[in-house]
Structures are given as C-alpha cells and as structure tokens.
Amino acid sequence: MMKKGLKWIIILSSIALVLPMNTYAKKATTLAELRQELASLKKQLSDNQKQQNLTKNEINSAKNNITKKETQIEANQQKVIDATNESAKLEDEIASGKETLEKLVQSYQVAKGDNVYLEYIFQASSYEDLVYRYAIMEQLMDYQEDLISSWKDKIEYNSQLKVDLANKEKELNNQIDSLASDIQKLGNKLDELDDMTPDIKAEIASTQSSINYYTQLGCKENEDLSECMKVASSKIFRRPLVKGTITSQFGYRTHPVTGKKQSFHSGTDIGIKEGTNVYPIANGTVSKLTIKSSCGGNMIYIQHIVNGKKYTSTYMHLLKIKVKIGQAVTTEDVIGLSGGSSTAKKKGGYDSCTTGGHLHLSLATGWYEKDYFGYSKWRSHLINPKTTLNLPSSWSSR
C-alpha cells in the first residue's frame, strides 16, 4: 500500500498557514481537542471544495480565451486570403495598365525620353494644336505618375499586411500554447484536489466516530482520554497472519501503480489471498476505523501498550472489518479479512493504492489521534514493522 504522502504534506502545509503552528505539535488528549481537530478537518474540506471551484473557473476562463484567440486567427487568415486575392487582382491591373500606357505612348510617339516629348509638342501645326498637345502630354504624364503611385501604395500595403498578420498569428498561437499549458497545470491541480476530497472526508468520518465513542464511554470534555479508556498491555508482538510472504518493504520504493521512483511506503506489504483472517499484532483497543478510503481501502487502527510503550498499528486494504471503535481485542481475535484484489480500483473497486491481494501493516510509536494528529505526524512516528516484529520473508505459522 502506498499512502499519498506528498499530497497530505501539501494539505497540512496549507493548514499551517492559517492555524497556529502548534496545532499538530500539541498533545491532544481530550474530547475538546478532538472536536477542534474535527472542526479543522471540516474547514479543510470546505477550503478544498472552494479551491476546486476556483480552479474550474480558471480552466473555463482559459478555454474561453483560447476559443476567442482561435476565432481571431481564423479572421486573420481570411484577411491574408483577401490580401492575396487583392494582390492577384493588382497584378492583373498592373499588366492591363502597363499595356494601356504603352499604347498611349506609342500613339503619341513618346516612347523614348524628354526630347521626343518636345518633338511631339512642337510639331503642332497651330497655336491651338500646340496647347492641345501640351495638355495631352501633361495629362498623360500625370495619369502615369498617379497610376504608378497607386500601384506602389497597394503593393506596399498588401505586403505589410501579410507580414503583420503573420506576426499576429504567431503571437496568438504562442498565447494559445501558454493557455493550454496553464489548463494542463490547472487540470493537474484539480485532480490533486479531487483526490484529496475522499481522504479528508474519511478523516472527518473517523474523527467523528472517535468523538462518538468517547462520548458513549462517558468521557468528559477535558478529561484525559488515556484515563477514560484503558488499553490492555502485551509483552511481545505477534504476526498479523497465520502465513504470508513479504511483497514490499517499509520505506522508499518505486510505486507499483504509478511507477514513480522514491515514493514513500508507510508499512510492510504481506502477500496473502483475499479473505484471509487478520489478527492484531498485540492486545489493544480499536481506536479508529476508515471505510473505503481511495488510498488504503478499509483500515483499522489499534492502540497498544507493549512492554510499557505505546504503539499504534494500522491494517489496510481489508475486505471486511469485524470490530468496532472502542472494542478491546487480543492477538487471538479476528479483526477483519484481507482484501486488496477485488477492492482494487483497476478492477472496478475503490482502492487506487493496491494491485492485488495483500495486507498492508503499518506500525507507529505513540497513540495516533491521541498523542498526535495528522498524516505528517503519524509518518514521523512510523517504524519498520518487519524489523520490529522480526517478520521473515515468508512463513506458514504464527
């Protein structure tokens, strides 16, 4: 079983920004402090849901911006097409105009230089003819200059327009790429927030169950819970299964589901077929139950006193739970049935942190949710179950 350590570190870090720094450092030993923890978890869930909504709005806004920019690109591309068509028309106009000018020049015999212009003018037969010829030449030259200037302006405009539109399209595509990258990041953020929700809800449910149990026991708001609830002691630890095979060790490993390297594993995995009886590793009292967590499935937490020291054992990926919160158990009691196969998410189940039939056993010093709260504190108290229980690689009897 692989607990989502990084995810919870992010959660706890965000809580630390708004809660006093000693919220988790303080030893919670009363019902009143449990209620404070419950209120903190509920606020955490509310903040998570608000953040999800904000992230969804950011994603929608980015998608809308992409649509607008794609529309701009389409409009610009049409402008490029129009400019290309206009250039084609201009080429035809230039060709036609050039032919017309050549005919005019030839008709007035002015194909070669200023002297020819003068010859044409001074060949007039009368003063009126001279004035007429001069006016014709002046109009012809003005028309030629205006026409050429018009062609030049149109050519320059279309050329610059194409350059400007190409640059604009490049700019818009860069903005779209940036928005797409933002959407990807926001999507990852939303997935993380969404993944957190079931686990926060599970913590809320288990904390509420603990409050209900201590209330039923008659514990007072400010009474030390260790005085209100007595835990049977043991001298040694026992194996949680009659037989089994170690399939994954405590500590850092490559995640069997995601393939991520250096992923922290909070316990020891013991391979066993689904439906096998699971026993406590020492006498104790059931302190917490988690039902259908998205990473861990059904889980049992038991508090122990072994050789005068406090411990909390955790049994994960269970098919069934056969105990209640507050129930005193011995090493001979069946607390649940192993799962991990049919409960796997890839097989249509709810547990995304299991790949097959096995029991995940975690062991921590102190009493979780009595002496300390929160995943990061629990993780800091974890010890290696295989070493502590002296578990062999495989065995066939307890």
Give the percentage of residues in beta strands.
Answer: 15-25%
Q: What is the 3D form?
A: rod-shaped
Largest sheet: 12 strands, mixed
Q: Would you tell me the structural class of the helices and strands?
A: alpha+beta
Instruction: Give the integer mean of the pLDDT values.
Output: 80
> Percent of residues in helical segments?
40-55%
What does the radius of gyration come to?
41 Å
Order of helices and strands: HHHHHEEEEEEEEEEEEHEHE
Q: Please give the number of β-strands.
A: 14
Q: In oligomeric terms, what are we looking at?
A: single chain
Stretches with pLDDT under 50, minimum 5 residues: 1-27, 108-113
The first-to-last residue Cα distance is: 22 Å
- Count of runs of 4 or more consecutive helical residues: 7
Account of the protein in words:
This protein starts with a helix and ends with a strand. It is rod-shaped and about 140 Å long. Helix 2 (31-107) packs antiparallel against helix 4 (127-217) and helix 3 (113-122) crosses helix 4. Mean pLDDT is 80; it is low at 1-27 and 108-113. Strands 1, 2, 5, 6, 7, 8, 9, 10, 11, 12, 13 and 14 form a twelve-stranded mixed β-sheet that branches. The longest helix is centred in the middle third of the chain and has 91 residues, at 127-217. The chain has helices at 5-16, 31-107, 113-122, 127-217, 225-228, 375-381, 385-388, and strands at 233-234, 244-248, 251-253, 263-265, 268-271, 277-278, 284-293, 297-306, 309-321, 328-329, 336-338, 358-365, 382-383, 394-395. It is built from seven helices and 14 strands. The chain has 398 residues and is α+β, with helices and mostly antiparallel strands. Helices cover 52% and strands 17% of the residues.
